[in-house]
Write a structure and sequence with these properties.
This protein has 127 residues and is of the alpha+beta class. 56% of the residues lie in helices and 18% in strands. Strand 2 and strand 3 form a beta hairpin.
């Protein structure tokens, strides 16, 4: 009888652990990260300085995760699309003419989601 209760407890703990893990993964995937890309639309104009962009975002109270140069552009990552939109408004006013500020597609995030979906679907077929 004790062995049967112990196995039931183990199964319950295992199911609980899997459920908590799935919940944490799901919660992490719900975070809507957003990226702005700043690039020149005219030849001969160099990429804006990251410190200059940081200073203006900070002065306007707009939090961001990172500012990273990427080829001939500057990528700014935000926690939300609201922060990204606020930053676009500020940078449109701040940067001189000749720059395009655009929302970048989150290909990496979408491929990660599809990979996780495929992984979970394949694991469900096992056994």
């Amino acid at each position: 009888m004790k062995t049967h209760v112990f196995r039931g407890l183990q199964a319950t703990m295992l199911i609980s652990a899997v459920a908590v893990t799935a919940l944490l993964i799901w919660a992490g995937m719900q975070r809507p990260e957003s990226t702005l890309e700043i690039r020149s639309n005219q030849q001969g104009i160099s990429m804006p300085d990251g410190f200059f962009v940081w200073h203006h975002l900070d002065a306007n109270g707009i939090p961001f995760k990172s500012i990273t140069p990427d080829n001939n552009s500057l990528l700014i990552k935000f926690d939300s699309s609201a922060q990204s939109e606020a930053a676009k408004v500020v940078l449109d006013k701040t940067l001189p003419r000749g720059y395009v500020i655009a929302q970048q597609e989150e290909e990496e995030e979408n491929s990660a989601r599809s990979w996780l979906t495929r992984m979970f679907n394949e694991n469900l077929r096992i056994g």
